[in-house]
Amino acid sequence: MAGRVDRGSRLLAGQDDQAWVSDNGTFAFGFSPVDSRKDQFHLGIWFAQLPGDRTLVWSADINSPVSKDAVLEFNANGNLVLNDGGATVWTSNTSTSGVEAAFMSENGNFILYGPDQLIAWQSFSHPSDTLLPGQPLTVSLELKSSKSQSDGGYYTLKMLQQPTSLSLALTYNLPVAVETETESAYTNFSYCRDPRYRM
């Protein structure tokens, strides 16, 4: 069945023709080169039928590309594991969830299914910088942009729980110091949209 991924499957970053594709070929899950480079890659989901450079709609970590030697394995324990240079750089943490199969769906959601078709993990619950139709943004989630090449800052968009309502907050985050590359814990700029007020 197209879209289904069985345990034991793997993808290699340096193999451009490898991807897990949805039933009708709308979305693909795999490695996408960074800015047309052949030595750095993002693990992500993209529109498979659009011409030109791949448009990512989800990434395991948009700010931490991996090398051409990176390997993604859907192992026997039902865990997605991304290894690069002998180190594990990302995992779905589902080795104890009884995952039986994975599925690249036509709406862009990559899903790991446990017993009785219960969802153990899904990309819709771990958004990066894009929301797709039907994908919720709840108070426990946030969107995070890629880092600016000029100052290393990045945007986050999240829902805030207020006493009587929800607000949408846009924040720009700057590094504390470029030399340490540690990020600030304070908000540099925020925009909050309260539904009680009109723009």
UniProtKB/TrEMBL annotation:
GO MF assignments: carbohydrate binding; kinase activity
The protein, known as: G-type lectin S-receptor-like serine/threonine-protein kinase
Bulb-type lectin domain mapped to chain residues: 1-125
Entry keyword annotation includes Kinase: yes
Entries under Pfam families matching the protein: B_lectin
InterPro entries: Bulb-type_lectin_dom (IPR001480), Bulb-type_lectin_dom_sf (IPR036426), G-type_lectin_kinases/EP1-like (IPR051343)
Keyword annotations: Glycoprotein, Kinase, Lectin, Signal, Transferase
Source superkingdom: Eukaryota
Cited SMART domains: B_lectin (SM00108)
